[in-house]
Design goal:
This protein has about 120 residues and is of the alpha+beta class. It contains 3 helices and 3 strands.
Length: about 120
Amino acid sequence: MSNESLDPRVQRLDLHREENDYQTTFQWITFEVFHQQKRGKQPTHVGIVHAPSPDLALVFAKEQYGRRGITSNIWVVKSSDVYMFPQEDEDMFSTIPDKQFREPGAYKVRDKINAYKERQG
């Protein structure tokens, strides 16, 4: 019994390369999946897949996330390669009071509009 896929899209991935050391692992790797609807649009994170290699992660991601809607491209990234700040450092992103001008709520536009309308009469 052969493990060869009959799908030509899977065959062209050349999954049996000698340099592919992912095939020897017993634990599958978690990959983050990013989906792009149209060329030029921003890719968005849509979920995760578990796979023994990046090539198969692309195949799994295509089957899981690429068939539901319009798809231009799909990216997969090992979850261990995604870095983020720890949850404890959340306060480093809060706006300090002297920079409230960066927030839209700091502007009293409605008051200025009403004052202008009153002057116009």
